[in-house]
TrEMBL record:
<dbReference type="InterPro" id="IPR013096">
    <property type="entry name" value="Cupin_2"/>
</dbReference>
<dbReference type="InterPro" id="IPR050807">
    <property type="entry name" value="TransReg_Diox_bact_type"/>
</dbReference>
<dbReference type="Pfam" id="PF07883">
    <property type="entry name" value="Cupin_2"/>
</dbReference>
<keyword id="KW-0238">DNA-binding</keyword>
<feature type="domain" description="HTH cro/C1-type">
    <location>
        <begin position="4"/>
        <end position="58"/>
    </location>
</feature>
<dbReference type="InterPro" id="IPR011051">
    <property type="entry name" value="RmlC_Cupin_sf"/>
</dbReference>
<dbReference type="GO" id="GO:0005829">
    <property type="term" value="C:cytosol"/>
</dbReference>
<dbReference type="Pfam" id="PF01381">
    <property type="entry name" value="HTH_3"/>
</dbReference>
<dbReference type="InterPro" id="IPR010982">
    <property type="entry name" value="Lambda_DNA-bd_dom_sf"/>
</dbReference>
<protein>
    <submittedName>
        <fullName>XRE family transcriptional regulator</fullName>
    </submittedName>
</protein>
<dbReference type="InterPro" id="IPR001387">
    <property type="entry name" value="Cro/C1-type_HTH"/>
</dbReference>
<dbReference type="GO" id="GO:0003677">
    <property type="term" value="F:DNA binding"/>
</dbReference>
<dbReference type="InterPro" id="IPR014710">
    <property type="entry name" value="RmlC-like_jellyroll"/>
</dbReference>
<dbReference type="GO" id="GO:0003700">
    <property type="term" value="F:DNA-binding transcription factor activity"/>
</dbReference>
């Protein structure tokens, strides 16, 4: 995410300042800037909010004038694999200033990376294939293909695959009002 460094420097911020504004460590932010670490979707949303930009600008696929984007089967970019273990494909990355942040995610099956995340904006998850387990602080839900869940992104949550085959999930996050 070399774009992160550019956006930070455009604001005249040091890594210390960005760390203060995001609650992330300076060393982690440095790793992200150098491309040695990839943030989760929740962390990327927090970075975008702190910088006052559309989250697509952090992934480097935003275009200035796209108001419509069609993605054909088989043309999706390779999934991004953040430090959280989930991999994801950012859908509609060329549209700037959108009110929804759509992703295809491929949740991990391991327990090691079970990190609860919270972020601004409401969230809709629809399981396209496989089965997942959605964990919240006070409950756990098992979802199969065709099942969905809607919740406030501010509720800490975690998703993991529980089926023998990898799960594919459509994730749509309502963009924070500042970005909408």
């Amino acid at each position: 995410m070399r774009t992160l460094r550019m956006l930070r420097q455009e604001r005249g911020w040091t890594l210390d300042e960005l760390a203060r504004r995001t609650g992330l460590t300076k060393s982690y932010l440095s790793k992200v800037e150098r491309g040695n670490s990839t943030p989760s979707i929740a962390v990327a949303i927090g970075l975008a909010e702190a910088l006052g930009v559309d989250v697509t600008q952090l992934f480097g696929d935003a275009q200035d004038s796209a108001n419509l984007e069609v993605r054909r089967v088989g043309t999706a970019a390779d999934p991004t694999v953040p430090d959280s273990g989930s991999s994801f494909v950012h859908l509609a990355g060329g549209v700037v200033g959108k009110q929804m942040l759509p992703f295809l995610i491929y949740p991990p099956a391991d327990e090691v990376e079970c990190l609860y995340r919270a972020h601004s904006g409401d969230e809709l998850i629809l399981v396209r294939s496989g089965e997942i387990e959605m964990r919240f602080p006070d409950r756990t839900e098992r979802l199969a293909a065709g099942d969905s869940v809607y919740f406030r992104g501010g509720i800490p949550h975690y998703v993991k695959s529980i089926s023998p085959e990898p799960a594919e999930v459509l994730l749509v996050i309502a963009a924070p009002e500042e970005q909408a």
